[in-house]
Amino acid sequence: GAPREPFVMVGSDHSAQYRAMFYVDNPNAVSVVLPPGEPVVASQISPDARWLLVVGDHALPAGARVKAAFGGFVLARVGSADVGIDFTQGAWPGVVSRAQGLSGPEPWGTWSDGNRVSLEFVDPLPADFSLVLKGHTIGDTDRPVTVVVGSERREIHLPKPQELSLSWHTDGTARTIEFEIPWAQSMKELGVSEDPRKLGLGFVSLRVIPAASP
Question: What is this structure's pTM?
Answer without folding.
Answer: 0.67
